[in-house]
Amino acid sequence: MRGRVSKGVWPPENVSLTPGKRVLFLTKNLDLIRKQLYEGLNLRMEDLSVEELLDDINTDVMTPAWVCFDHDPAMIAENAYAGLMHEGGRVFEPRALIDGGFEVIVSGHRKGTGSSRETAPQ
Fold first, then answer.
1. Assigned domain for 33 exists
2. Where is 36: in which H helix or E strand?
3. Could you report how far apart the first and last alpha carbons of the chain are, in Å?
């Protein structure tokens, strides 16, 4: 079973993780993201303020167009957040989310913004 949310309440008051899985906090401080991905840092919301979370994450960060050439969701997952770049390099290396055991991603306001893919042919 994957993560569970309390029934009948939206947004849920509680979210349960699958045992052994982790929460990734997308912070404006990209070094904190790297430490979570590659050094095993486990943050909690109590460790952060809402203002420290990354806002306005667009679809080109989440799944750049080249990632979508793979139609297999498992392959797409291997390159999740491939568009988040810092100093010319990817913050999320291939399989970073999978290998890190992340089940939930927490960010600031508006995720999936700015996509023009639906209207590109028009």
1. yes
2. helix 30-38
3. 41
Nearest in space to 95 (alpha carbons), one of 72, 75, 65:
75
Residue 69 lies in a domain: yes
- Cβ atoms 98, 105 nearer than 8 A: no
Name the burial class of residue 60, with classes exposed (0-12), middle (13-18) and buried (19+) by CB atoms within 10 angstroms of its CB. Answer: middle
Condensed to tens digits (0 to 9), the pLDDT of residues 53-102 reads: 999 999 899 999 899 888 888 889 999 999 999 999 999 999 999 999 99
- As for how many domains the chain has, the answer is 1
Question: Three-class SS string for 46-97?
Answer: HHCCHHHECCCEEHHHHCCHHHHHCCCHHHHHHCCCCCCEECCEECCCCCHH
Torsions phi, psi of 80, nearest 5? Answer: -60, 140
**Could you tell me if residue 106 is inside a domain?**
yes
The residue with greater pLDDT, 8 or 84, is: 84
Q: Which residues contact 43 (CB under 8 A, 6 or more apart)?
A: 23, 25, 27, 32, 36
